[in-house]
Known about the structure:
Structural class: alpha/beta
Radius of gyration: 23 Å
Mean pLDDT: 96
Distance between the termini: 14 Å
CATH class of the largest domain: Alpha Beta
Strand content: 15-25%
Strand order of the largest sheet: 5-6-4-1-7-8
Largest sheet: 6 strands, parallel
Low-confidence stretches: none
CATH superfamily of the largest domain: Phosphoglycerate kinase, N-terminal domain
Number of domains: 2
Amino acid sequence: MTKFKTLDDLGDLTGKVALVRVDLNLPMQDAHVTDDTRVRASAPTILELAEKGAKVLLLAHFGRPKGERVSTMSVSMTLDAVQAVLGKEVMFVPEIAGPVVEQAVGILRPGDIAMLENTRFWKGEEKNDPDLAKAIAANGDIYVNDAFSAAHRAHVSTEGLAHLLPAYAGRSMEAELKALEAALGTPVRPVCAVVGGAKVSSKLDVLTHLVTQVDHLIIGGGMANTFLAARGVNVGKSLCEHDLAATAEKILDTAEQSGCTVHLPYDVVVAKEFAAHPASLRTCNVHEVSADEMILDVGPAAVEALADVLKTCRTLVWNGPLGAFETPPFDAATVALARSAAALSKEGVLTSVAGGGDTVAALNHAGVAADFTYISTAGGAFLEWMEGKALPGVVALER
């Protein structure tokens, strides 16, 4: 049993008004949306509510207007993209509460969809102001949250409304929460986590939490260098946070006490300059990195061993690339391990959940995104979930 209500708990909604929080914070170029992934994620929820006869009012933020009306940050900028994905006309309403919205609701027929203005144009949104929440709720009958990516924020549109109206998780939110529950809530063991990226400092809380939750922790990217240096390895000119050596040691100690095996690379790909296919490129043992070289990827022998680790696991959580994957050939380790994980997921022996912007880009680059069990497009919310934090937008749905 899920701890929250879903669209399955709703019957006929004819004439009822559904306030639906979606993510329309889309990438733009020259006033055109360049990626409509987030719209496509919420489309099933919006269309299902419309089919059940609801008048659907979309709530979303766009950019950071900080409580002011900024014309270039109107959510109407996304209107064409939303209409294209939904295949339906969407009315734009330049307010989020009050008589203008009430009037729009009067014009809408059952099954119609309207988009309300950027919630962050109102100062009360980010302060979770109860008066603003009441004003918005006054025009709705039910509240549906389908924006997991904003669930780590306790704002009016993500948290406050859930206390004033019957609250439900949309299809995208529901899929996300089920995937996360399968990955770290009540996972099938052994569990492996892959954490990569440039800096330990940005993922300290993630690493500290994960070593108490998983059986294997694979550390890659620039942050692996910090752990290697803490272990006394000379990492040359590599990106490394030497001041965090004691912190890295503490994380390794906690892992040992918790029975978590930490995997650090033992062979690495190095070069004297960071460029695509540099002349100074070579693969060596981690103890053979010279003073003028930098580690830019995990070596092939280590990747093969890591693929064998994955074969022993049943659940995988992945956040961050293993090397400087944007610059070939330093994408090799990430691509190889991602392909191993994808193959195991396809066979049905591994539940794989990945999230974070760089991670999604890396898996797309490896051509395996479709074979992972679940890919989260959320950045901050996914990281906070990996840190073991309660997400206000999710907690509000659980009541």
